């Protein structure tokens, strides 16, 4: 079951899991009725508030769920506008998911993030095990989630696993309030208007990952031999690192008329400056064979084609 299935990752993870395990074996759950209706066009979709433990437990029991993919989260920039809501939502859904995994012997995947790091973390080739003192409520939730995953594994034997996702670039769903949203938004704006105003400083490096690699990482880790996992919560993974300016220059090579400027958001500037320039993902490569396929050039070509098609079809 994919909980919080209507977001950027869930929208594409559900069909990815269907390809692996069959249509009938994947359930998509989300809080909002309109999202459930949309998910229902291509999946078994149900309405679910992950904070309502009794309702959540009924579904897990009735459907004999053996794996929970908990994607419920209020993202970094949005979370700073309402830290209490972010904590209640992110941690409430996680604790309910972990407790149900313990009770019903489910495996559980909950993504962590580069947001778990902070200003004191080494920024160049950020180690797997290092200082983690984030300066956002989103990051605090992610660090707490990593620790809880390890605790439930060591204390109760729960098969909890996660990765630290960098910024995820995709064309399956629109951005949802994260600091790295610019790297998705720009492609739609290029297709629609030919120009873009970026809220992240032009020289800020951040790790990025194209969605096909993110999906493969999720299933690959969940299927990995547990005896080979030294780490569980959570693995550094990445495939590319660039600044906004470098991304925009790569787009301009393909769309010479494209123009851009900057109107920096102070909150996004502070958040992005605290994150790694590039992570060291050697532990993921060594322990479960992580090997991304998509680089900057391949991603740019694919995103431009997909977003142009969506704009032409009136989807943006």
Structure report:
A 6-stranded parallel sheet has the order 3-2-1-4-5-8, sandwiched between helices. Strands 6-9-13 form a 3-stranded parallel sheet. With about 325 residues, the chain is an alpha/beta fold. Strand 2 (about 25-30), helix 2 and strand 3 form a beta-alpha-beta unit. The model has no long low-confidence stretch (mean pLDDT about 95). The protein folds into 2 domains: about 1-165 and about 210-235, Rossmann fold (3-Layer(aba) Sandwich); about 170-210 and about 240-280 and about 295-310, UDP-galactose 4-epimerase, domain 1. It is built from 12 helices and 16 strands. The protein has helices spanning about 10-20, 35-40, 55-60, 75-80, 85-105, 135-155, 180-190, 210-220, 245-255, 265-275, 280-290, 295-310, and strands at about 1-5, 25-30, 45, 65-70, 105-110, 110-115, 125, 160, 165, 165-170, 195-200, 205-210, 235, 240, 260, 280. Helix 1 (about 10-20) crosses helix 8, helix 5 (about 85-105) packs parallel to helix 6 (about 135-155) and helix 7 (about 180-190) runs parallel beside helix 9. About 45% of the residues are buried.
Task: Compose a concise summary of this entry.
With 316 residues, the protein is an alpha/beta fold. 46% of the residues lie in helices and 16% in strands.
């Amino acid at each position: 079951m994919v909980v919080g299935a209507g977001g950027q990752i869930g929208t594409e993870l559900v069909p990815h899991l269907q390809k692996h395990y069959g249509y009938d074996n994947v359930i998509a759950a989300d809080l909002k009725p309109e999202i459930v209706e949309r998910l229902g066009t291509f999946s078994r979709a149900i309405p679910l508030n992950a904070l309502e433990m009794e309702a959540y437990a009924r579904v897990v029991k009735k459907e004999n769920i053996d794996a929970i993919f908990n994607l419920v989260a209020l993202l970094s920039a949005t979370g700073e506008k309402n830290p209490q809501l972010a904590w209640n939502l992110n941690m409430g859904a996680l604790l309910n998911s972990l407790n149900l995994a313990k009770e019903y012997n489910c495996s559980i995947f909950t993504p962590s993030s580069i947001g778990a790091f902070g200003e004191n973390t080494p920024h160049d080739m950020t180690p797997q095990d290092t200082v983690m003192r984030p300066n956002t409520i989103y990051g605090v939730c992610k660090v707490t989630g990593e620790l809880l995953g390890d605790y439930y594994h060591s204390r109760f034997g729960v098969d909890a696993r996660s990765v630290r996702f960098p910024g995820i670039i995709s064309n399956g769903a629109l951005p949802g309030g994260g600091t790295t949203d610019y790297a998705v938004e720009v492609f739609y704006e290029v297709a629609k208007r030919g120009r873009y105003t970026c809220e992240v400083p032009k020289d800020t490096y951040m790790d990025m990952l194209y969605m096909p690699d993110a999906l493969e990482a999720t299933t690959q880790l969940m299927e990995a031999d547990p005896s080979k996992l030294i780490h569980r919560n959570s693995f550094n993974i990445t495939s590319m690192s660039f600044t906004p300016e470098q991304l925009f220059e790569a787009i301009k090579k393909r769309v010479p008329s494209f123009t851009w400027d900057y109107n920096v958001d102070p909150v996004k500037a502070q958040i992005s400056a605290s994150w790694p320039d590039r992570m060291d993902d050697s532990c993921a490569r060594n322990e479960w064979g992580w090997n991304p396929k998509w680089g900057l050039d391949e991603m740019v070509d694919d995103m431009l084609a997909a977003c142009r098609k969506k704009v032409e079809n009136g989807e943006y």
